[in-house]
C-alpha cells in the first residue's frame, strides 16, 4: 500500500449523504455513540475528517471509494462493501 491519502468527499454534505446511505443502515454502527462504534471504516472516516489528511489507501478501498483497478468512484455516493444490513 502507498502513503497516498484519499478524500472521497468535497464537502460535508457529500459525506452526510454517504453516511446516511451506509452507516445509518448498518448493524455495526452504534448511532448513539459513534466514537465507540465497532466499524473500523467509520472510525477512519471520522479520524480523517478531524485530522484533515484523508483516508489511507486501505480505508479508501474498504469504504468502496478506491476501486481494485486504482480508479476512484465518480459518483457522489455508493454502497459501502462492509455495510451489514439489519
Describe the fold and architecture.
With 86 residues, the chain is mostly helical. The protein contains three helices and no strands. The mean pLDDT is 87. Helix content is 33%, strand content 0%. It has helices spanning 12-21, 40-51, 57-62. It has one domain.
Mean pLDDT: 87
Structural class comes to: mainly alpha
Helix content: 25-40%
Beta-strand content estimate: under 5%
Which consecutive residue ranges, at least 5 long each, have pLDDT under 50? Answer: none
The main β sheet shows up as: none
Shape: globular
Number of helices: 3
Question: Number of folding domains?
Answer: 1
End-to-end separation: 32 Å
Q: How many β-strands, per DSSP? A: 0
Query: In angstroms, what is the radius of gyration?
Result: 12 Å
Listing every helix as H and every strand as E from the N terminus to the C terminus, the arrangement reads HHH
Briefly characterize the structure.
The chain is mainly α and 86 residues long.
Keywords, please?
86 residues; mainly alpha; 33% helix; 0% strand
What is this structure's SSE topology?
Elements: H1 12-21, H2 40-51, H3 57-62
